[in-house]
Design goal:
There is one protein chain. The protein is α+β, with helices and mostly antiparallel strands. The chain folds into four domains: 165 residues, Beta-Lactamase; 109 residues, Beta-Lactamase; 161 residues, Heat Shock Protein 90 (2-Layer Sandwich); 118 residues, 3-Layer(aba) Sandwich (Rossmann fold), CATH 3.40.50.2300. It contains 20 helices and 21 strands. The protein has a five-stranded antiparallel β-sheet with strand order 6-5-9-8-7, sandwiched between helices. A hairpin with a 4-residue loop joins β1 and β2. The radius of gyration is 64 Å and the shape is rod-shaped.
Length: 753
Amino acid sequence: MARPSWTKKLWLQQSLLTLVVAFLIAFSFSLFDAVITLGEYRVKTERELTLLLDVTETAAAQAVFQLDPGLAERVARGLMNFPSITSVLIVDDNGKVLARAEAARASAQGSSWLMNMAFGGLTEMRRPLAGFGESLGSLSMQIDKAAMMDAVVQQYWASIGTDMAKSFILALLLSALFYRLLTKPIVSLSESVQGLDPGGSTPFRPVLEKWHSGDELGSLEEAMTQQFSLFQQTIVQRGKLLEDLRLQEKALESMGSGVVIFDAITPAGSIVSVNSAFVKICGVEEPQLLGQSYRVLVEQVSNPDMRAQYVRNLNAAINKGENFSAVLECRHSSGGLLWVEVSLAQVRNAEGVLTHTVAIVVDITSARANEELLRRSQKMEALGKLTGGIAHDFNNILAIIMGNADLLSSEMLGDPGTARRISAIIQSAERASELTLRLLRFSRKDQVHQKQFEPDKLINGMQQMLQLSLTPEINIKIDAGANGCVVSLEAGDFEDALINLAVNARDAMNGRGELRITTRVVELARGNSCLNDSMSAGRYLEIAVVDDGVGMSSETSEHIFEPFFTTKDETKGTGLGLAQVYGFVERCNGSVRVQSALGAGSMFLVYLPELTDAPSETPPEIGRAATHRGNATVLVVDDEEGLVVLARTILQRLGYTVLTATSPAQAIEEWQGSKLKVDLLVSDIVMPGDMSGIELADYLTESDPNLKVLLASGYASRELAGGREGAKQYTTISKPYSLHDFGQSVYAVLNEA
């Protein structure tokens, strides 16, 4: 492995530091040695000069005694040969100069302070001259301190060079020793650390030599081995924790439920984390939610009184450290209502201290809607069963009334007044039958079978029903201008849709105003905004329902056909009326549009495709006698004795042989005991006892596969009578029926292939 650059710097720094320290030590010792040398040199120089004076004193005294200038001059010049002497002066006792000698010496001005310190007291040396017991004169010498200083400096530089060389060699030895003992082990440890993978499983390997085992570096290596082992374990655990946290974060983000985490330490309980589901539920961006109080969970409750109660309950639960749960109806940021289920759980640390609160928020709007649909469905199912039973008995009564009225009508052809009264009875019975059918159509779940109708006729026939559905203060105007237009629809659904539109208009007008219903045939070209994607261009019936009520905004118009959307109080509307209109129109492959503005009323436009080549369903002619006669044997079974008598009378008039029974058990006895071969079974479907009319038909056709069957009932699902998969199919006729329809149905069943 290549040595890292920083370790090279460490080695270089260590070497340079050792060298500098060695040089400084050498320099310090040299200075100390220079001071000592300087002192010794002064003493030596002073001794030499004294000795020189001693040597020349006799000669100088002789020259003065003899007054010999030549000798004095030679003595002075001899003394000037010494470099430390700048001048020599020999005078007699009278002050007469016998000899003077001077020399120019270079002076080191820059070192004057050092010279003064070393040779401050050694400037001039004077020796009195005497002979024969009397003073003769004096010999004086001026000392050159600069020369002495130069000599000392030269000697110093000569010695310091040697010292520095020795110091350099010493520094190299110390550097090598430090590198071997300190730098190299540190570099080895650093290289070993650099080569470690913190997240790997390779342990820290010892790299120092064995003789370090007892010193501080060995202890450092041992401590590093232990610490790195713990460090690697911590890294592995941290990695697992991070992976678990990422997994939990992904799980929280993927949850359909909103998750909110609050800081339970602060009194306000501020939000510290939310997931995307909660952001979607609230309709508020995450940065705006962070830092909010936990009260944000209940502050959007739509009912102010309930909001205050939930705030109190939530505060109490938080303060006591208890869990909290509630189902809340809240106002979304977009303005719509939604139902949420909120559950709070307290999170405590290992010491049992409450640190955080976790809230789970579930949007249960759809679930509530489904519950409401289920509740209404169950209610409708119960209502359907109740009305089914009532309708069965009521239609039996109506069948007796209408059948006997038909018989009387055929007998009173010569009495117009009586015939009119009988016709009124039959028409009233027809209206009562239609009312029963509408009640059944509202509550039952039978498959819708569309037929061809002229909507204008249906609308004109509904005027009285519409007026009863509204208030007397609402004036209804119907302008049916699409006479002869035929469409495919289910009459009951059409009537329900029209009533729902009228009721919606009534509420928009607050029970007072004018409701206009108009129809016309229009040609819609491709690209017309009234056409949906599934609709093609062509002729359409347009039904316009117009009110002069309060109108609505464009935002409201976008949602009015959604199930459970309503602008009314929940006690006054379910939000299902216009949804039924939309569903009916979609089943007819049509479209519905609304035009409205606040304060300007509303106009609903329904477009249904016209059938150009199909005749409409026409109601049977009341009181028309049956014309199809026969001679077959018919077994009539019905628990209503009046209907049995009526059916026998009608069939006997048509030439049939009739056997009767008022229960399935009696019918089987009649079947088995009769000497006649029964060609047709006419049976009510719903009868008391363990066997229905369908089961009776199945039993008898097992004995005689050629037996024909006609089933009748005041209320029965088509699936039970003729839509059972894998079972026998039977022809049905609805009660109440006219004499003509009954006779025609019997003839048709007997003569079918």
